[in-house]
Each structure stands twice: as structure tokens, then as C-alpha cells.
Write a structure and sequence with these properties.
heterodimer, A: 272 residues, alpha/beta, TIM Barrel, globular, B: 54 residues, mainly alpha, 0% strand, rod-shaped
Chain lengths: 272, 54
């Protein structure tokens, strides 16, 4: 979905995004992530934009535009703040042990004070570093970092989880994978979709073995059918995310699901 | 209260009329500018955010 953008459009739409942030036109939806035991252990925060008069804007359209216009800095900061605030709220309701995954762009990470700003946010909202996962796409890693992961290493040392998003469609080599300061691999949906082919199953099996050897957690994205889920469950430990288990929803809807799970867990503990 | 203009009254009327026209013209140009800006905003938003043909 590449559109050639002229200077006028870039400035105008960048300003629209900035204005939208000031006018509360953006919101976050949360997609649940499940462990192989079926427990909701985390959510991925996804930005959504409702433009008055025009309607919902697809993230596939506005995020590349935010990157091009530079508005991704403001948008990214807003996402981090809002997600941390939401996580704090959930913790205040007694929902503990939940992780919040946030997509970050290389433009954000390239800023010199990025690790410090994350540490400040964790302090401000009184969150444990391990409750935050920053996701960076595989393509971004290899196109922008050129082997220098200093900032990412600082983040890892703080205790923040780092995930390699859309893994499998970029140019990862095994050597790079061993050097990357990540602790989570997010298996791209294209892998999951073609699990009906034996060749893909074989690749995925080996990938899980490799991830296990490197002590990396694997999260499979885009799980949409029972067959896909069944195969991935046999690859345990695997974590899942996809429309089969739950679409991205607003905070209110996710809160009620989390509260229900929390009550269930409480009852189970009482019984045992 | 009025200002007395030296010379022919007709010239004074003409000057007054010209001033009114300049003011109205400026206002119209400003309105057109904002209308055009709104038009470009709408078409750009539709083109980049909603047009599925791209």
C-alpha cells in the first residue's frame, strides 16, 4: 500500500495527526495474548484513529504517514503514555502479572533519550519493567540499526522485554538472531497462515527448537483457525495472538474480560 | 459627525466606494482561500487515507 506522497500532503496529514492527538481523536485498542494454557497473560496496544466527518482511518494508512511526516514521535509518545496509564489502571483493579506490548518505530528508538524516557514512564506509572514489551519489526532492526544495538541493550538491561515483530518475513540470519538483544520472537502471520503445508510446519518446528535453544519466547501472530491453534499448541511453550482468541477491543471490553479471568483465578486458588 | 472632503463630492464618493470594494474583495478572497484549503484538506485526506485504488 505504498502511496507516493508529496510535500504538501506530508505536511498537511502530519498536522492532521498532531491535531488529532490534541483533539482526542486517537484511542488504543488492545488485542489479548494467550499462553499455551489458555491464560490471558498480556495485551498488545494498537492505535486507532477516528477522524470526525470521515470515519475510522486504517492504521495501515496513518502509521506510514506518521513516519513520513515525523508525527510518529508525538503519536508514539502518546501510545506509550496511554498504554502505561491503562496498565496502571488494570493493576489498581488487582489485575497483576499482565504485560503490555507496544509497537515502536526506529524513529522513536533513534532518539538519544529514548531508553531514559521509557525508564521515566515506568517510574511515573509505578510499573515493573518486565510488564512492558517493546516490539520492533524485523525489517526495522536490519534496515536501521546496522549492528549497533546500544539503546536496545540499555532497555534490555533495565528489564524491559524486547520483541522481534513480524519475524520470518525480513532478512534475519541465525548469527544476527543470536546477537540481537531480544527475548521474544513474534512469528509472522504469513507463517501461521501456511501451516497447512508440511514444509512450513517443518520450518516452524525447527524455529521453535532454535528459539528454545536461544531462550526466546515465541508468540504466534494471526492465529485464526482451530487447526493452526492445534499445531502451535503442540509446539509448547508457544503464546498466541489472533482473531480466533480475541480481536483488538477497547479498554472497557478488555477490562471486563480481565476481571472475569481474575475472579476465576481467585476461585481456583480458594478451591486448591 | 462627518468629514469634509475638499474638492468635488463625487470624488469623495468614489474613494468611499473603492474602499468598500477593497474590503469586500479582501473578505471574499479570504473566504475563497479557506474554502480552497478545506477542499484540498478533504481531497488529500480521502486520497491518502480512504482511497482503496492505491
Amino acid at each position: 500500500m505504498m502511496i507516493e506522497t508529496n510535500q504538501f500532503a506530508r505536511v498537511l496529514l502530519g498536522n492532521e495527526i498532531r491535531q488529532g492527538l490534541l483533539s482526542d481523536e486517537f484511542c488504543l485498542h488492545y488485542q489479548p495474548q494467550f499462553s499455551s494454557e489458555g491464560e490471558l497473560y498480556g495485551v498488545e496496544a494498537l492505535a486507532r484513529w477516528y477522524l470526525p466527518v470521515f470515519g475510522w482511518v486504517s492504521p495501515a494508512r496513518f502509521i506510514p504517514m506518521a513516519e513520513e511526516s515525523g508525527a510518529i514521535i508525538e503519536l508514539g509518545d502518546w501510545v506509550i503514555c496511554t498504554a502505561c496509564q491503562q496498565l496502571r489502571f488494570w493493576q489498581s483493579l488487582g489485575i497483576d502479572g499482565l504485560t503490555m506490548s507496544i509497537n515502536v518505530s526506529t524513529t522513536q528508538i533513534s532518539r538519544p533519550n529514548f531508553p531514559q524516557s521509557i525508564a521515566d514512564k515506568l517510574c511515573e506509572y509505578d510499573l515493573k519493567p518486565a510488564s512492558l514489551t517493546l516490539e520492533i519489526t524485523e525489517t526495522d532492526y536490519f534496515e536501521h540499526f546496522n549492528g549497533s544495538f546500544k539503546d536496545l541493550e540499555v532497555l534490555r538491561d533495565i528489564g524491559v522485554n524486547l520483541a522481534l515483530d513480524d519475524f520470518g518475513i525480513g532478512h534475519s540470519s541465525f548469527q544476527w538472531l543470536a546477537e540481537l538483544p531480544v527475548n521474544i520472537l513474534k512469528l509472522d502471520r504469513s507463517f501461521v497462515r501456511s501451516l497447512n503445508r508440511e514444509s512450513t510446519r517443518s520450518v516452524v518446528r525447527n524455529l521453535f527448537q532454535m528459539a528454545s535453544d536461544l531462550s526466546l519466547k515465541v508468540v504466534a501472530e494471526g492465529v485464526e483457525t482451530e487447526v493452526e491453534l492445534g499445531f502451535l499448541q503442540s509446539m509448547s511453550p508457544c503464546h498466541f495472538q489472533g482473531f480466533l482468541m480475541g480481536r483488538p477491543r477497547d479498554a472497557v471490553s478488555v477490562t471486563s474480560e480481565l476481571l472475569m479471568q481474575n475472579q476465576y483465578r481467585g476461585r481456583q486458588q480458594l478451591i486448591s | 459627525m462627518y468629514f469634509e472632503v475638499s474638492g468635488d463630492d463625487f470624488v469623495a464618493d468614489l474613494i468611499g466606494l473603492a474602499m468598500v470594494l477593497v474590503n469586500v474583495g479582501s473578505y471574499a478572497i479570504l473566504c475563497m482561500y479557506f474554502r480552497l484549503l478545506g477542499y484540498f484538506r478533504a481531497t488529500t485526506i480521502k486520497r491518502y487515507f480512504y482511497d482503496d485504488r492505491d
